[in-house]
Specification:
The protein is an alpha+beta fold. The protein has one domain: Hotdog Thioesterase (Thiol Ester Dehydrase, Chain A, Roll). It has 3 helices and 6 strands. Helix 1 (14-27) packs across helix 3 (66-81). It is globular, with a radius of gyration of 16 Å. 31% of the residues are buried.
Length: 150
């Protein structure tokens, strides 16, 4: 991969292609990057992203708003399911909140592919605080888009 310690030639491994697809997608993800989400690593069917909880992300209970935790998990899910290369979107997702996160916490989302079948896939994402405590568990369903007509 160019700029990422690998080769961008067409003779690379599937993992290198996956890394290129995830990194390229993230480079164009203005929403996630605008909220301070960072792509830590990506490989075929997996991704790790992180985000620091800011004051603007805290709700009236002085904990991270669940929407921001969901967004971090959804970003890691998107990176993992797009790591294979073809454009893939969410068909659905659900989250279970386990523990609160607070302002200043560094949250890490680890996405793992559970299965892919046809154009569909299922991915699990664990979101944890920097102390290792699990904050949320997310399951996403993906759908690979058909190639553009033309």
């Amino acid at each position: 991969m160019a700029g990422r310690g690998g080769s961008s030639s067409s003779g690379g491994t599937a993992e290198v292609v996956g890394r290129n697809a995830a990194y390229d997608m993230f480079a164009a993800d203005v929403a996630s990057r605008g909220l301070g989400i960072e792509l830590v690593e990506a490989a075929d069917g997996a991704a790790v992203a992180r985000m620091r909880v800011t004051a603007a992300m805290v709700n009236g209970h002085a904990i991270a708003h669940g929407g921001f935790v969901f967004l971090l998990a959804d970003t890691a899910f998107a990176l993992a399911c797009n790591s294979h290369g073809p454009a893939t979107v969410a068909a659905g997702g659900e989250i279970s909140f386990v523990r609160p996160a607070r302002e200043g916490d560094l949250l890490t989302a680890r996405a793992t592919e559970r299965t892919r079948y046809g154009r569909s896939g299922i991915y699990d994402v664990t979101v944890s605080r920097d102390d290792g405590a699990v904050v949320a568990e997310f399951r996403g369903r993906s759908r690979t888009l058909p190639p553009p007509a033309g």
